């Protein structure tokens, strides 16, 4: 499932009795860069596991050898869950930034933030039913609304919430009803039923079937993903409060340790799990083992934090790494628009009313598509932001949030 809703992108502040977006120079460019990098990982995972096969078929047929196998293995080990985890952490940080800056100018910041999340949920429902049911906007909006209850709390309260939400998947192994709700679906049968409809059906056929999936399957996905999304947002809130994102150079030592521990420790479980499967052709743990959900719930956020810390270090070290990652800032700044654009393009590429490639390709072709399209989005985003303040969908979202027309075009285009 996948976006970043870009709460921190072009973060607004509330003037006394007025509502206006923050000036461009006051933006936090590092967050845009990390978001842009995470968007690439999200796109690659969506193409591999959500577009090329029906969403709830869990990747469809396996490839046990050859290039397809190694591409899928790379995406599972290094990207799957990690990119989306990083997105939701940034979303939590963005909520806090929004609240702090709005509160500094006026009362009513919490209401404005709730209004913003409400309109995000509307975007999400339209996206889910009209384009692609891998939507994460509804998940982000609902988890974000709940996260508002932690906005004014002390750090230890957030830590308690993080621990409890991390334990949620483990509790499911002891609670059969919860486990059956989250996993109680026949993915093989769903694959057989969904492929003809998504691959050859008309747009209306696919919309009707997507509504069926929402009733039968989607609620299961929310039971499974929502606690993790909420947990990640609380982590993002704590990271912002720590000051690391505001003054990375002052926390260089902490960033180095975070990158080292996060990447090394975070990779242990997925790497060992993959090696075990390659050797024994079976899962590392039995189906109902508590270790499987526990290690998954810990490794993904550790690796996501390690990635973010590593990017920050490269950004402030200078040289080629800085230039390469800095080029991702425009994509991250327009992440909402880019996420929805990806859905528009690839639902057309893979569904029957377009090219009908669903179920017809392995992992390599979608990976090449993703790299090429992301590169195109880098170019388009850079050009767009030379002339406009926001991405198109960011602009619509802002107008709805503030209840009035927002300026779009830059007064003078930068040279």
Automatic annotation (TrEMBL):
Signal peptide: none
Annotated DUF418 domain residues: 240-403
InterPro entries: Bact_Transport_Assoc, DUF418
Keywords, ordered alphabetically: Membrane, Transmembrane, Transmembrane helix
Segments passing through the bilayer: 33-54, 83-100, 112-130, 136-151, 156-175, 223-242, 254-272, 292-315, 336-359, 365-385
Protein name (record): DUF418 domain-containing protein
């Amino acid at each position: 499932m996948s976006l970043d809703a870009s709460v921190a992108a072009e973060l607004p502040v509330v003037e006394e009795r007025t509502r206006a977006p923050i000036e461009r120079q006051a933006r936090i460019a590092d967050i845009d860069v990390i978001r842009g990098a995470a968007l690439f990982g999200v796109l690659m995972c969506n193409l591999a596991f959500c577009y090329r096969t029906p969403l709830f078929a869990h990747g469809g047929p396996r490839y046990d050898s050859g290039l397809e196998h190694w591409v899928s293995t790379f995406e599972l080990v290094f990207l799957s869950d990690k990119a989306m985890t990083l997105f939701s952490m940034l979303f939590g940080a963005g909520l806090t930034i929004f609240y702090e800056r709005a509160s500094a100018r006026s009362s009513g910041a919490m209401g404005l933030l709730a209004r913003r999340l409400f309109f995000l949920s509307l975007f999400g429902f339209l996206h889910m039913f009209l384009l692609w049911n891998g939507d994460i906007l509804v998940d982000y909006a609902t988890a974000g609304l709940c996260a508002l209850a932690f906005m004014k709390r002390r750090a230890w309260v957030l830590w308690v919430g993080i621990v409890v939400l991390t334990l949620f998947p483990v509790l499911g192994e002891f609670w059969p009803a919860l486990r059956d709700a989250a996993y109680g679906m026949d993915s093989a049968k769903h694959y057989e039923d969904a492929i003809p409809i998504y691959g050859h059906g008309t747009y209306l056929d696919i919309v009707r079937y997507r509504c069926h999936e929402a009733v039968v399957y989607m609620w299961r996905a929310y039971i499974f993903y929502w606690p993790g999304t909420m947990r990640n947002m609380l982590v993002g809130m704590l990271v912002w409060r720590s000051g690391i994102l505001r003054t990375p150079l002052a926390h260089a030592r902490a960033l180095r340790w975070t990158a080292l521990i996060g990447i090394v420790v975070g990779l242990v479980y997925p790497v060992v799990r993959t090696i075990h499967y390659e050797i024994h052709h079976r899962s590392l743990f039995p189906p109902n083992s508590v270790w499987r959900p526990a290690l998954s719930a810990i490794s993904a956020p550790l690796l996501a934090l390690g990635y973010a810390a590593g990017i920050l270090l490269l950004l402030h070290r200078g040289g080629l790494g800085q230039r390469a990652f800095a080029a991702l800032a425009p994509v991250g700044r327009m992440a909402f628009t880019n996420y929805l654009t990806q859905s528009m393009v690839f639902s057309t590429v893979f569904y029957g009313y377009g090219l009908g490639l669903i179920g017809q390709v392995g992992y390599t072709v979608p990976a090449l598509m993703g790299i090429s399209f992301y590169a195109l989005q880098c170019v388009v985003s850079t050009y767009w932001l030379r002339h406009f303040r926001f991405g198109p969908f960011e602009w619509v979202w802002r107008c709805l949030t503030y209840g009035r027309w927002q300026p779009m075009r830059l007064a003078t285009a930068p040279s």
